[in-house]
Amino acid sequence: QQDHPDSWLTVNGLAAKYRVSPRTVFNWVSDGRIGFYRVGRTLRFSPAECDQDLLAFHVPSRIRTSIANG
Predict the structure, then answer these.
(1) Which of 33, 44, 63, 67 has CA atoms 20 to 30 A from the CA of 6?
(2) Got the DSSP string for 5-63?
(3) How confident is the model over 16-34, as pLDDT tens digits?
(4) Whether 11 contacts 26, CB under 8 Å
């Protein structure tokens, strides 16, 4: 499902949605974790597509715990 372009978020909007810094959003883009659309000189993000993209990188809590414990 693709959102209507009017609902696409800016870097700051996506950062606010996920409660991360704009730098983190740029890192996700750079790492290929999330897709984006270029509108002029700005990046825009489909909220639904970003939700799906980030779920693909989800690490279950029991795995995070075992990694943290070495």
Answers:
(1) 33
(2) GGG-B-HHHHHHHHT--HHHHHHHHHHTSS--EEETTEEEB-HHHHHHHHHTT---HHH
(3) 999 999 999 999 999 999 9
(4) yes
